[in-house]
Design a protein that fits this description.
single chain; 364 residues; alpha/beta; 6-stranded parallel β-sheet; 13 helices; 41% helix
């Protein structure tokens, strides 16, 4: 079996999409009868993959040229049995195709995207869903959403869950200290609530900020709110309303992120739409009590290990934040449940399930 995997997203800091592929590939064991090629952007650090994969650097950085010309050409030149892509498919590649579609949030709210990105996704992702030989997604919620929206059979869609990177587990020693991270981002010695995600409107940080201010107005306290993630092109308005007790770190690497999780008094994830949602699991792995939105895939992922709020109700968010900051018995229970919950997700199992999809689509 000869597999080609479009791994152009490695090291692109795209959040959950990159984490999914990075961890699947790191944990993937290839059988002897399998040759697998990774298609990566020039300059990508591929040292950890070279013992199992053939590395091919892509010539084109743009998506249009990659899917229209380069990937079809590679499929033919390498005589691939299966090509695995993310979201988009080449128009003609001459082999079986597997496509990962993490979610289809653009179908639910166009305002979360630039006009260019929305049109690109609206034109091409429905085609990918209908023409791929098999679809991979990351939750039962997304599986049903894709099936219902595009009229494809749920049997054509496999759910392969995300999980937590080993480095986030509490027992792991870290190279950087919590105090160094607090100093770098100007947090100081006060308690803080952490949220992780880019500043796109879908992440709902505006309501989180207002709920945080509401909590402090009603109950007082010296807490800060720390939001870690890349700035979206529409972030300026959000930055203006934040105030001095809300800190934006921008993108942080995993070493810093782990210490941000570990040092936080609580973690909040107010997203309006998620295909999976890795950050709540990362928070649990670091021993941080968690409150999340009650929408889309998040109840499926978090289970009984977190508090839930209505992400469109600032009062509901504020109440949950206050409970996490004051109810010690509740916090202890959530930490214990979180430690159990993360064990339901495992990258080794997910990687093995991915390999099963490749085999089924080669020999079916």
């Amino acid at each position: 079996m000869r597999i080609g995997i479009d791994a152009h997203m490695l090291e692109d800091h795209s959040g959950g999409n990159e984490r999914f592929y990075k961890n699947i590939l790191q944990h993937m064991n290839l059988p002897k009868d399998c040759t697998a090629y990774l298609f990566v952007q020039p300059g990508t650090d591929t040292e950890q993959y070279r013992d199992r994969f053939e590395i091919i650097e892509l010539q084109s950085r743009g998506a249009a040229r990659r899917y229209l010309k380069e990937l079809p050409k590679l499929c033919r030149a390498l005589d691939l049995d299966v090509l695995h892509t993310q979201y988009f498919l080449p128009f003609r590649c001459g082999c079986r195709t597997v496509c990962t579609i993490h979610d289809i949030c653009f179908e639910h709210n166009a305002s979360w995207f630039s006009a260019k990105d929305y049109v690109f996704q609206k034109l091409l992702i429905p085609r990918s869903a209908r023409h791929a030989d098999h679809i991979i997604t990351v939750s039962e919620y997304s599986r049903q959403d894709i099936a219902d929206t595009y009229g494809v059979s749920p049997e054509k869609i496999s759910v392969i869950y995300d999980a937590v990177d080993d480095s986030f587990l509490q027992a792991q020693d870290q190279e950087i200290s919590e105090s160094a991270v607090r100093e770098k981002f100007g947090i100081g010695d006060v308690p803080y609530i952490l949220s992780v995600g880019n500043l796109n409107p879908r992440k709902n940080n505006g309501r989180l900020i207002r709920a945080f201010h509401l909590m402090k107005e009603r109950w007082g306290g010296s807490e800060k709110l720390v939001i870690a993630g890349k700035k979206d092109y529409r972030a300026d308005e959000l930055l203006k309303e934040a105030g001095n007790d809300v800190l934006f770190t921008g993108f942080v690497d995993d070493k810093e992120l782990i210490q941000l999780y570990r040092g936080a008094a609580a973690f909040a994830y107010p997203s309006l739409y998620e295909g999976f949602g890795i950050p709540p699991l990362e928070a649990m792995a670091c021993g941080t009590p968690t409150a999340v939105s009650d929408r889309t895939s998040l109840p499926e992922v978090v289970g009984d290990a977190g508090l839930y709020f209505d992400p469109e109700d600032e009062e509901s968010i504020a109440q949950c934040l206050h409970l996490l900051m004051t109810d010690k018995e509740l916090v202890a229970s959530l930490i214990s449940k979180g430690n159990q919950r993360i064990r339901a997700f495992d990258w080794n199992r997910s990687s093995a399930e991915m390999m099963e999809v490749y085999y089924e689509n080669t020999f079916s």
